[in-house]
Amino acid sequence: IVLNHTIICHHAIMIVCDSALISAATSKCAACGKDGENLKACTACKLVKYCNVTCQKAHRPEHKKECKKRATEIFDEALFKEPPPNEECPVCSLPFHSMVEQTYKSCCGNTLCSGCIYAMVNEHGSLETFVCPFCREPASRSDEEELKRIRKRMDLNDPEAFYLLSSVYARGISRCIPQDKKKAFELSIRAVELGSTTALFNVGIGYSGGRLVKKDMKKAIHFWQLAAMKGSIEARHNLGYYEKERMSGNISRAMKHYMIAARAGLEKSLKVVQQGYSKGVVTKDDYEKTLRAYQKSQDEVKSIQRDKAAAYRA
Predict the structure, then answer these.
(1) Alpha-carbon distances, residue 203 vs 80, 208, 247 (angstroms)
(2) Hey, which of 64, 124, 142, 313 has its CA 20 to 30 A from 273?
(3) Which tens digit of pLDDT belongs to each residue from 266-282?
């Protein structure tokens, strides 16, 4: 089917290609040569246009190699693009970070940072009298009450609520929710469809470890790629590892992933970049830029309350 987008994943993740490519494409059908204003661009590469699906199929043997090459280039352009800015805690307005613990609140559907949770618990003296720092709703008093809140958020198509319930089914909680790995995976996929980056990453984890579903590294990498494009630096780090150790052994591609994750603040990726620099596979300029960006990312997420929360957990 000829569409206006390159569909990367059937779980509703799309990458819209540069409109300049479409305008640059010929105004003639690549198969029959007819002119036309309603020609549709090849969905994969955007380099050629066709009258209809019949012309597209007829031209496929001739176009296949060029199409695959350009489609790979388009995908890599999206994959190695700098990630979007980190989301912010709605209470303190500081960016989230992989090293900052986050808590999803089923009362209001917000994800809050550990610093704000710590401050509220400290203010009230105990978890029993805790209220949500955002909506001031008291904490759930039982598993049944918490599940009721989660399901209410699910009725609003909240992706994180679906993912939270999937994690509950994955481990099971007493009589309320028995362990059900199949149900857990189905809920994770629904969370992916609704846009959860966390679910994307963890579905990849599921496929890589075979914990909830049959092990399939090709699918694991696919979901990690999608998660990385949405900003998951943990997924990005995993891609770096598998590029380097398990896939093509392409050090250059692996280091690209590691540098992107390190610039976004992931310490373990920075350590790999440092090793790459010492071995001569990362340039001095790239290493220095990555180091500066890493430090900036660390500074942006710091707060007294987050430091206290981290010290309390330690």
Answers:
(1) 21, 9, 19
(2) 313
(3) 999 999 999 999 999 99
